[in-house]
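Reply to dn_fold:

You asked what the input looked like. This is it:
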Amino acid sequence: MNAPRSHEAARRGRDRRAHMLAPRPGAPRVNSARPPTTAVVGGGIAGLAAATALAERGVRVTLYERGTSLGGRVAGWPISMNDGTTATMSRGFHAFFRQYYNLRGLLRRTDPGLRRLTGLPDYPLQHSGGMRDSFRRVPRTPPWSALGFVAQSPTFTVRDMVRMNPLAALPLLDVRVPDVYEQLDAVSAYDFLQSVRFPEAAHHLAFEVFSRSFFADPRHLSAAEMVLMFHIYFLGSAEGLLFDVPHEPFPQALWDPLGAYLQQHGADIRLSTAVTAVTPTSDAGFIVDTGGAQQRHDAVVLALDTAGLQAVVSRSPHLADSPWRQRVGRLRTAPPFLVSRLWLDRPVSEHRPGFLGTSGYETLDNISVLNRWEGEATRWAERTGGSVVELHAYALPESSSHDIEQKRLLTQLHTAYPETRAASVVDERHEWRSDCPMFPVGGFADRPTIRTPQPGLMIAGDLVRTDLPVALMERAATSGFMAANALLEGWNVRGQTLWTVPRQGRSAALRALVAMGDAFSPRG
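and this is what came back:
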């Protein structure tokens, strides 16, 4: 197999200031006489990225996934409908933003033109009080993006602008990693927004919608994480805030083709195989235990969610060292969230968008109309005359009653989309999960990094500290490639070129303004 194409082909974004991270020089592939073996534990985005970069370069990869399908938190699985047909269920809507360079590069392995993704025309936000924001006509390049949003948004008035605290807002204009964590990790996202004195309406409609995409209440989320998010998606990138979605369910559009690609590169994919423990060997290798079988590997990438990583590490007392294992044990998981998918017997109004972020509707955080873009849902709606609607509720209390919260979401759907009150639910599925990483106030310094104290052992996932301006699915993909690169570097093989949004504020004038403000502020 040939090595991946050039890094210039891998980016394919519009932002000329995107930052390239070239790997260290090395051979294009490992020595084929005795290729090293690597266990990648976890078949989510991070594990798939690590496995791809390694397998492409001749490493013998064994991918262990405890679930029945690939994709991790973006997986899908078949369900039987009440009408006797089969559908694909998932954990809910995911937006594939245009600045997800490394994730999109991973998907290009099987879809060079990204034809399996389709763009949604807008990213609308709606408050229960009637206010509505849109990013459809907002310029994509900062600072015009910010100015355009403020000019068009009904949540900003002249009086509001006069009341704002410009000094407190300066960190938004020149975000650098990891400096932003040193500056703001000890502050909550809620307190930061309060200090800026953003208009209350904007606070609830725009900023809270964004911060809750981390599945956490803004009062418990690090302000550094939220400010970094604004840099990635809005103030630091010229890719804009519009995004793509798969035109078929996740398995068919994304992961089944990528799994076949990995197998073509010699990877051994073991689904329904949970790793219970990893034990270092005297010859610098590792024994991977799956509860009934053991296999030796030269290296290991642990690409697991928080609970999965903690479970493996707790049963692997000789892995890395005690301080590292304790750091893993201190990782936290975000509060529970609910995804309700409803198959309705009639369509929603034709002007409803494919995706809508919401605020002020009690626990409802967004509404998706899947048959606006997903082929499987579209075919069901055309056949039955109905519609497929998905509702999300993030950061619910641990003690939430499932039945009450599911009914609450349906009630709020009726409030947001009144025409659904007349609809009957012909089928429904409710997914309750609590496995997303939490980025608490003051938690950054204790977060584990890609490399561990043990050579040959790497970790990857969106829970990992990368010191790069990436988040959510893109952090998962980037960390997987970084884990692979760290191993390839030890074998003198050139790894994967990575791209990120600019690693500092885009404007020299704004950076100078921030520096001037720092000199006169208490932080300076």
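The longest helix spans residues 472-490.
Hope that clears it up.
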